[in-house]
Specification:
The protein has seven helices and three strands, in the order βββααααααα. It is mainly alpha-helical. It starts with a strand and ends with a helix.
Length: about 200
């Protein structure tokens, strides 16, 4: 169908800074890498009623004639040679420098690496093996060693533990504690502990 067109965006002095191909209201849409001109009279339709192949061919021809700024061959801000796909696209030296600068000097701590490792394990499976659980517990315990708790922290821990029955446990309680816990029971206990410490952390913030 011949419902395509080729258009260009003009600078204030009338010279084109972008050539594109589209249909419908594409030439007038915002949110693109190359912004459209603020005035509608600076959006110029070069040729209408084209097939997509004809529009691609004309787009490539005009980009080649005007030349690209990123290649140092002309005045257009296009980042490709036109036509289908992204042929001829290159990353500017400035954009490469920005990406390198953004990532230079970033070093993850051992704790961050361990957390990322555990997170990756969690994505692969929602269930941990007994060895993984033991390793997680060991790492959490080691990360807490040497960290002095403030008086406020101790007071909050004490508050959370209030209401727990002090003194010796009854024989019935001991027998219940000796019984092996089901996987569902262990998960419920773990969830309860996580919720308790999450509440404590929230109070500290």
């Amino acid at each position: 169908m011949k419902n395509y067109y080729v258009y260009k965006y003009l600078r204030e002095d009338g010279t084109p800074y972008y050539v594109g191909k589209g249909k419908g209201n594409r030439a007038y849409l915002k949110g693109r890498s190359t912004p459209k001109p603020p005035q509608l009279d600076r959006i110029q339709l070069i040729k209408e009623n084209l097939t997509e192949a004809e529009a691609f061919a004309l787009e490539r021809k005009l980009i080649a004639e005007y030349g690209r700024k990123d290649l140092g061959t002309g005045i257009l801000r296009n980042l490709t040679d036109g036509g289908e796909g992204v042929s001829g696209r290159i990353a500017s030296v400035e954009s490469i420098k920005q990406r390198v600068a953004k990532n230079t000097g970033k070093k993850r701590t051992q704790e961050q690496r361990e957390r990322m490792s555990l997170a990756q394990k969690g994505r692969k499976s929602t269930e941990y093996t007994e060895e993984q659980k033991a390793e997680i517990s060991r790492k959490i315990s080691e990360s807490q060693k040497g960290k002095a708790k403030s008086e406020e922290h101790k007071a909050k821990l004490s508050q959370l533990n209030k209401g727990k029955s002090p003194g010796p446990r009854s024989e019935e309680t001991k027998q219940k504690m000796r019984k092996p816990k089901s996987e569902a029971h262990r998960r419920a206990i773990a969830e309860g502990r996580r919720a308790k410490y999450a509440a404590l952390r929230a109070q500290q913030c």
